[in-house]
């Protein structure tokens, strides 16, 4: 089975489970798939132990701890595995709400370990999805390959389960105040008893001995281990694909899994006793200290230029002026910082027709064009008035909601500004009514530029040349360096959040650590994280030609070919009337064509016979009988003319 390692939930079926070999477990009690083997646990030990979790981030899943810990991902923040499960979120809510500690006592019994054999055949649905992604990669449809890879992760999960411990668990779970943990039995704030597998828990006269005796018939998965989903891609499971495509396919799925993790990392202060504590955060970024400075935000703007032969203007959806200046610029005392640079392409369908005898042949072809854009945000140079810029009200994209509103919208009194392909930045200059929704903001950073607010201010220069050399710092060097050399991060007391990923470039923004704390648990962001590409379902390898009758009523396909590259003219397809013969022509059209051909042949023969007679150079004329005075003459003239003597009697 597939496995979503953030939610700890089963996902789509990844491999084929065939029972043709009639395999059973060693004790003959369970029928096993051909691709699964079991390792019986010979001991009959019932493991009982207790755990204390003082912080929710250290809590481990009862039935999925192995796969959560050994996620198999080379990510900095893979520790968020399982943090979006109901079990983990419940513990976090109880600890933060009650300012308490969680205690877990459980009895665990394991009877079998089931393991998935290597190179198990893939399920048809999963294999078809992989082949579709590979096709898009081969056709250089990168955006569509990325989109389908993210859909694959959404539907089939992040991991494949390769090993399961089958058994049963009974668990006693309660929460007590931290101040009186030594006397927690008298100070419990919340408690519950959970049973996983085994017999139904009966509170009256319950005993572990009786529970253990009845486990055998009610086994479940009490622990799971596995690998990332892209580990299933190999020449053995996909022999029809070339090795180079297999590598690109693996990288595409891997990137989709990693993006799923990155979009669900919420950085902030996770210490409940800190004034900067963020209830939303699931990764501590050391921002529990109070920020040293408040920063102003000078707005954003985006330029655009279009190329190609399109009638539509792609830049209309991309261009953005800065409302503070009414132009593509920053206010006075502010400096523009590049955030993103990219392009958007589109196509238009056009029609070309020409006549051939009695028929009009038409084809629809595509014209392509692109728009190149560049996004900037405005950072203050030095000290400026606190109300000289905008208030920041969060941001959202077409696929990711605003953390402030929980929807793809701006707070009240805030206005969206366009940035990139789909990002909207919420700003307001109403410092009276919009202040309640404002979030302390500390800049953007991306793969193209760092955050200038991370650069330490250059110390005051001394008039003494020797002292000036001593006071030269890293900050002064970075201030004169290119933006791509600036530090990528947030100032003290601020946390970074992933805004979006466009053309493999991450764009992050910085806000005060506890800015989103009043909005509950962090929502799980599910893929896809990009829009459906405009060329998603274009058949890029087939060229269709049609012959259209003079009255435009009949469209007949006359060719169909496959090409390896995008054709210059991709022609549209339309249907024909019923009653076609094998060539695709209707019966009435065949009769009409046959009659026209026969008539044309007859006319050609008549014209040729007439021309042959006119090309004779002369024609001999006989003398009429009884006319002895008439003599025979040979007349010469132009081709096609004959002189005949007249009777003068």
UniProtKB/TrEMBL annotation:
<dbReference type="GO" id="GO:0002250">
    <property type="term" value="P:adaptive immune response"/>
</dbReference>
<feature type="region of interest" description="Disordered">
    <location>
        <begin position="557"/>
        <end position="583"/>
    </location>
</feature>
<feature type="compositionally biased region" description="Basic and acidic residues">
    <location>
        <begin position="562"/>
        <end position="581"/>
    </location>
</feature>
<dbReference type="InterPro" id="IPR020864">
    <property type="entry name" value="MACPF"/>
</dbReference>
<feature type="transmembrane region" description="Helical">
    <location>
        <begin position="589"/>
        <end position="609"/>
    </location>
</feature>
<dbReference type="GO" id="GO:0030670">
    <property type="term" value="C:phagocytic vesicle membrane"/>
</dbReference>
<feature type="domain" description="MACPF">
    <location>
        <begin position="99"/>
        <end position="262"/>
    </location>
</feature>
<keyword id="KW-0812">Transmembrane</keyword>
<feature type="region of interest" description="Disordered">
    <location>
        <begin position="628"/>
        <end position="649"/>
    </location>
</feature>
<dbReference type="Pfam" id="PF01823">
    <property type="entry name" value="MACPF"/>
</dbReference>
<dbReference type="GO" id="GO:0045087">
    <property type="term" value="P:innate immune response"/>
</dbReference>
<keyword id="KW-1133">Transmembrane helix</keyword>
<feature type="compositionally biased region" description="Polar residues">
    <location>
        <begin position="640"/>
        <end position="649"/>
    </location>
</feature>
<protein>
    <recommendedName>
        <fullName>MACPF domain-containing protein</fullName>
    </recommendedName>
</protein>
<keyword id="KW-0472">Membrane</keyword>
<dbReference type="InterPro" id="IPR039707">
    <property type="entry name" value="MPEG1"/>
</dbReference>
